[in-house]
Amino acid sequence: MSKNKKLVQEITSMDVDFAKWYTDVVKKADLIDYSSVRGCMIIKPYGYAIWELLQSQLDSKLKETGHKNVYMPMFIPESLLEKEKDHVEGFAPEVAWVTHGGQEKLTERLCVRPTSETLFCEHYANDIQSYRDLPRLYNQWCSVVRWEKTTRPFLRTLEFLWQEGHTAHATAEEAQEETLKILDIYSDFCENILAIPMIKGQKTDKEKFAGALRTYTIESLMHDGKALQSGTTHNFGDGFAKAFDIQYTDKENNLSYVHQTSWGVTTRLIGALIMVHGDDSGLIVPPKIAPTQLRIIPIAQHKEGVLEKADELKRQLSQIVRVDLDDSDKSPGWKFSECEMKGIPLRLEIGPKDIEKGQAVLVRRDTREKIFISLDEVNEKVLQTLEIIQKELLEKARIHRNAHTYEAKNLEQLKSILEETPGFIKGMWCGDRACEDKIKEETGATSRCIPFEGESIGDICVCCGKPADKLVIWAKAY
Amino acid sequence: MSKNKKLVQEITSMDVDFAKWYTDVVKKADLIDYSSVRGCMIIKPYGYAIWELLQSQLDSKLKETGHKNVYMPMFIPESLLEKEKDHVEGFAPEVAWVTHGGQEKLTERLCVRPTSETLFCEHYANDIQSYRDLPRLYNQWCSVVRWEKTTRPFLRTLEFLWQEGHTAHATAEEAQEETLKILDIYSDFCENILAIPMIKGQKTDKEKFAGALRTYTIESLMHDGKALQSGTTHNFGDGFAKAFDIQYTDKENNLSYVHQTSWGVTTRLIGALIMVHGDDSGLIVPPKIAPTQLRIIPIAQHKEGVLEKADELKRQLSQIVRVDLDDSDKSPGWKFSECEMKGIPLRLEIGPKDIEKGQAVLVRRDTREKIFISLDEVNEKVLQTLEIIQKELLEKARIHRNAHTYEAKNLEQLKSILEETPGFIKGMWCGDRACEDKIKEETGATSRCIPFEGESIGDICVCCGKPADKLVIWAKAY
Ligand SMILES: [Zn+2]
Ligand SMILES: [Zn+2]
Fold first, then answer.
1. Per the domain annotation, does A393 fall within a domain?
2. Where does the Aminoacyl-transfer RNA synthetases class-II family profile domain lie (chains A, B) (predicted)?
């Protein structure tokens, strides 16, 4: 029991210091480790297994909707990065520069891709000739680098893993349709798989992507009341097409510029998982993204027949769920704590008395509810309970978010809400950049988005008091 | 028909210029494209789909044998790279150096990983404490960079995709066992999935990996008689463990160094596929790695009922194979050529007369054999034929390799064989590095390996004539 306590005691309580709790959890749940490379993380097997499940499930959705995977070079020549003016201004300050290859100094610097619009555009300019070549629906899974000053595992790292979709279309309408379609795919994915409810909306001009016409976002609320931008899609219009000369001949043999989009989600989503579902005992991983959905923990495993039964259950359950068996020589208490720390959604306890009675005990990670089940109905009960956990995690997160969504009529209200009960704050906005800047400066909150489900909670700007017809969600954000 | 001819005529014949044939095929089969980034390739959807099939099938084998995926940073600080002497000497001359992050000059240069031994070692030094932590069986899929002067798609590129396994074991025996186990997995994978026969053997000291105790290799023979190193596994002994201080306490509470291995295969394997199976009509992809295993080409598709039937067959076959349907408005001749260029193993032709007779025509890509089949037996015949193709491609490659494997007793023989009929050349070797150097210099051939299936074809060195008991396979290589 002392070891058991120790494992748990080593985590800071989230109410005491949320940031510390977060870094404790990523380490203790064995998601990552640090290395001597500043701001980069080692994603350990457990963390990477979550990423693989995320990747394979999202990849299926993208393939079902006609997207194809490709791989672009990781380097971008400086001259290529500079082709689109807004884009280079946005990214040049935060890229890593390769200046030497082997012993020689390069004649032109190469940056390690912070994102690959320029490479896709160069390729499309060569590869697209006629309307028959459209749409081009490409995606790639890779790592990218942005030279951040302060970093935090999963949330902001020098290097991170992501997918970046890059598409080219014949018309502005199709590009807009794609931009919104992907936003829906992201939002559905986050809700159904990660059990995180999302608000969909448009970014203000201040917050949009460097070079984009319009940027859309899905925003989620963390346990501490801060927002996390969880995925973005961008409609570029024909801006990049003009900068890179990507033209096609249409059916009437006229030359036209293509209309483009790009979109991405990153390892950040794992950060969201942690901060939405976790608690003071560690991680809570929704079943659909859990590398281990059920862990079997034998009780009094030295007693005759216990390990055999546990092993039999493991083989049986492995047909329907991702299951493992902890038959190590650690104490049950230690095993329970570790199972909780890793956020395994369900554990099954079985000991000599259970076997005698023909039963087992299921314990839910999220509610800690103990469910006594007959061994005849194990499969059914496990599947059922995992489904319930998946559903209730989403529900719980939605209730938390709704309970932390507020309205502010003026700057004073906005400030006091942020100080006392941080969360999403709805406030009307006049559309003036100056008001966004002022709110940021005085409160630390940024405009998260103009939500699609637009309502009106007034007609004057929360900042300047002038007429306003846009509802904005304001929040402090990661 | 003129378009059809054109597509084919644009490829150089392999007998005229093998190198040109190769680059023609990678472009025309839509595997890759070039970009403005020197020496790096764009892997297009068709090429990347082959890589995804390769990756998922090999990944399964590695997971089945207990290996877990992780992700390490892409950067290595110069001081970390320098920790193991042989390793840094081997790699430092060919790495890309990041010297600036954003606007600031870095205090220490970072290289873009050419391979990740140093990062894994640093991690293991932190992470491994006791015998309970062993073995550590980690793998990662990523891209690496080596600053090559001359490059060729898939075979030698500045950046390439690969998997790199890095393991740590309690004993020298276990490390050796792992090194050979992985070599078997690679060899079986190449034979069963890529239909490429491999020779397994050990590298000479000259050819072994920088920092390794022993390097093992699988070597294959290309259509032009050149060898291709297709995968390597390295036993490091405790050399890296000593350089990085990776120690564990054993059951008796003594401190011991771990024993390590590393191993990898790369996108190079796609180059092998092309050069082993391809012909003057383009690529030939073995069914198990083919993104499209069967393409349906309707004949006289404007005639009533043809497209409907073709579509029905596609839906039916999609349950059992990777199938597509070319219902574009191109001519059947053009479609046949494209199907051949992409190396789709099997095509199914169906026209009005076939439908009347209740039949279809299967055409094998490898032999061009036409097989008339009844529509009742489509599923069965398709599966059967794909199996036969997979088997016969391997057989054909094995026959080609065996027919191009020679024996040489002395340097003159070695030279004349290499000039007249290049291939694998067996020759005895005294073990002296000077002989390897001389052979390289005078003939261009290198020692590919000392094969496990060692035979003796003499007792004097093919180069110096002194006593020799090692059989070496010599060849010119990619
Ligand atoms: Zn205002
Ligand atoms: Zn010799």
1. no
2. 45-286
Shortest distance, CA A143 to any CA of chain B (angstroms):
9
Q: A45–B127: do the CB atoms touch at under 8 Å? A: no
Q: Residue A37: which of B52, B73, B142 has the nearest Cβ?
A: B73
Facing residues of B138 across strands? Answer: B68, B166
State the amino acid at position B318 in one-letter form: S
Q: Answer whether residue A65 is part of any domain.
A: yes
Residues B377 and B410 in one domain: no
The DSSP call for residue B287 is: G
Reported confidence tier of residue B6, pLDDT bands at 50, 70, 90 = low
DSSP-derived secondary structure for B337-401:
HHHHHTT-SEEEEE-HHHHHHTEEEEEETTT--EEEEEGGGHHHHHHHHHHHHHHHHHHHHHHHH
**Which residues of chain B does A143 touch, with a Cβ-Cβ cutoff of 8 Å?**
71, 74, 142
- Counting one residue from chain A and one from chain B, the pairs whose CB atoms sit within 8 A come to 148
Ligand 1 centroid to residue A470 C-alpha, Å = 10
Cβ-contact A209, A295 below 8 angstroms: no
Ligand nearest to the CA of A429: 1
The domain boundary residue, chosen from B213, B245, B277: B277
- B473 to chain A nearest CA, in Å? 31
A64 with A102, same domain? yes
Provide the number of structural domains found in chain B. Answer: 3
- For residue B226, the SS3 value is coil
Nearest chain A CA: its distance from B431 CA (Å): 32
What is this model's ipTM? 0.95
Range(s) of the domain holding residue A314:
287-386
Query: From B105, which residue of chain A is nearest by alpha-carbon distance?
Result: A97
Read off the CATH number of the domain in which B421 is found: 3.30.110.30
Q: Which residue of B has its CA nearest to A103?
A: B93
Question: What digits encode the pLDDT tens for the residues B53-67?
Answer: 999 999 999 999 999
pTM of this prediction?
0.96
CATH classification at residue B217: 3.30.930.10
**Does residue A187 share a domain with residue A50?**
yes
Q: What angle do CA A112, A114, A117 make, to 5 degrees?
A: 110
Q: Are residues A219 and A100 in the same domain?
A: yes
d(CA B241, CA B117): 11
Q: Which of A231, A254, A277 is the last residue of a domain?
A: A277
Say if the Cβ atoms of B119 and A42 lie within 8 Å.
Answer: yes
